UniProtKB/TrEMBL annotation:
Residues 18-85 form the Ubiquitin-like protease family profile domain. GO terms for biological process: proteolysis. This is Ubiquitin-like protease family profile domain-containing protein. Residues 1-24, 88-115 are annotated as: Disordered. Keywords: Hydrolase, Protease.
């Protein structure tokens, strides 16, 4: 099997040929508008809303508590859940608990598992 060349004009980055793109249309997809989904009004929380909504759907839970006022607590909970998944020996402290240098002397999160 021959590999794809970067200059191959018959195949785009997604691996689709022009003819396969032409066959796809919006009519191939079913679109459902659910009007009871909580709306996000606060800027910057759309990702948190999306993750929580997917979690609620997957677990069969109600999403009644999903609102802008709960976002700080939900964001903190999601952060804690993600950090819990990292192996303990791979977590580097984000800043020194007893800072002796300037306030901008912080170490970014580094882990061997994410590259």
């Amino acid at each position: 099997m021959q590999g794809l060349r970067k200059d191959d004009s018959d195949v785009d980055q997604a691996g689709c040929t022009p003819s396969s793109k032409e066959k796809m249309s919006e009519q191939a997809w079913n679109v459902y508008m659910i009007k009871t989904i909580p709306q996000n009004y606060q800027t910057g929380d759309c990702g948190v809303y999306t993750l929580k909504y997917i979690e609620c759907l997957a677990l069969g839970h109600s999403y009644d508590g999903l609102c802008d006022s709960n976002m700080p607590a939900i964001r903190l909970k999601l952060t804690a859940e993600m950090m819990d998944e990292l192996p303990e020996d791979e977590i580097v402290q984000l800043s020194d608990p007893n800072p002796r240098g300037p306030s901008d002397d912080k170490v970014p999160l580094q882990t061997n598992s994410v590259k």
